[in-house]
Each structure stands twice: as C-alpha cells, then as structure tokens.
Amino acid sequence: MSVRNKLTAIKRKFSRDEEGGLAIEAIIMLPLMFFVVMSMFTLFDAFRQYTMHQKAAYTLSDMISRETVPLDSSYLTGAHALFDDMTRNPQESSIRVSVVRYDENNDIFKLDWSQTQGYSTPLSNQDVRNWGDRLPVLVHNERILVVETFANYAPPFETGLGSREIENFIFTRPRYSPQILWDDDEGSFADS
Predict the structure, then answer these.
(1) Exposed end of the chain (fewer CB within 10 Å): N or C?
(2) pLDDT at position 1
(3) How far is CA 135 from CA 65, 108, 116, 129, 148, in A?
(4) CB under 8 Å, gap of 24 or more: what pairs does 106-112 form?
C-alpha cells in the first residue's frame, strides 16, 4: 500500500469518526457563551447604576425643596456624601444645585444662584436663559429648584459598552417657601 493510499484511508476514517465532536463544539462555543454572559452582566450593572443615580437625584431634589432655611456649603457637602452613599458608586461624582426663576417679560430664565460639590462648575445666567424646553411652564418670577448629578461610570467588564458619565437633571418647585436661599458663609444670602 502506498503512502498516498494510507493517507486517503486515514482521511476517510477521520471524516467518519464522530468521537470528540462535543469537545470541539465546546471549544468553539464556550468563549462565545462567556462573552454573552459578561455582556449581559455589564448591561445589567449599567442599568442598575443609572436607576440608583436617578433615585438618589430625586431624593436630593425632594430633600432640598423642603428646606426653609438658607443652604450653605456644609449642607451641600452632606448632600453630596448622601448621594455617594445612596449610589454606592466608587467612581468620581458631582452635584450641582441651582435656583432658577422665570422672567415672563423677556421670556427667559434667570439664575438666582448655583452651587456645586465635586468636579462640575456652577451655572451662569447665560447657561439657563433658554431652558424653556428643559423646564415646565412657570408664571412670572416663579422659582424652581434644579438638581443635576454627574457620576463617572466604568463597566465591570470591557464588552464594548465603554466608560461614560451618568447625568440626571431634576427640577422641583420649592415645597414650603417661595424660594430656596443660599447662605454664602459670610452671612449674606443669594437671591433676586
């Protein structure tokens, strides 16, 4: 028997042999299944983080809207710590609290005050003047509290989702007083 005939016979025997097929299928499918499970876990974690951040932002907004005494920097520091505790997020976060009023005569919004805790920057009048599409309809000189939260999110596994910033924009009318004041720690209050 020639070498060519031997190789042909081995090839035929190998093509008819079904032993080890499961192992080969497992080698092909296990990495794919592992990637799918990690992707599902990453998406679930991202949605969980977004939900926790939104609930924490609504809690801060509701808490601040009920204040009848002027807020100060220590109050905002505590609110930021509460936000971090509620979200259980080890990444960097920031909150921005602003009071905006509506000027019906000029059809613009004006800023009473804006303060931050963390890496975000305070708003300016220029930033809020055209927020008609972001805020509800208000009457002349009515004020509204705007709480914004920001947090960096890094997924637990690199499955294509990528790092991103979770942002929330919450507005609430003051509950027990017509406006919420800011004490600039020097005894003067920011309002208009």
Answers:
(1) N
(2) 64
(3) 16, 11, 20, 11, 13
(4) 107/132, 109/135, 110/192, 112/143, 112/179, 112/182, 112/190, 112/191, 112/192
Three-class DSSP labels, the chain: CCHHHHHHHHHHHHHHCCCCHHHHHHHHHHHHHHHHHHHHHHHHHHHHHHHHHHHHHHHHHHHHHCCCCCECHHHHHHHHHHHHHHHCCCCCEEEEEEEEEEECCCCEEEEEEEEEECCCCCCCHHHHCCHHHCCCCCCCCCEEEEEEEEEEECCCCCCCCCCEEEEEEEEECCCCCCCCCEECCCCCEECC
**Of residues 20 and 146, more confidently modeled:** 146
pTM as predicted: 0.79
pLDDT of residue 157: 85
How many residues would you count in the chain?
A: 192
Q: Are strands 164-172 and 182-183 parallel, antiparallel or unpaired?
A: unpaired
Q: How confident is the model at residue 50 (pLDDT cuts 50, 70, 90)?
A: very high
How far apart (Å, rounded) are the C-alpha atoms in residues 56 and 43?
Answer: 20
What's the confidence (pLDDT) of residue 192? Answer: 46
Given a cut of 80, is residue 190 above it in pLDDT? no
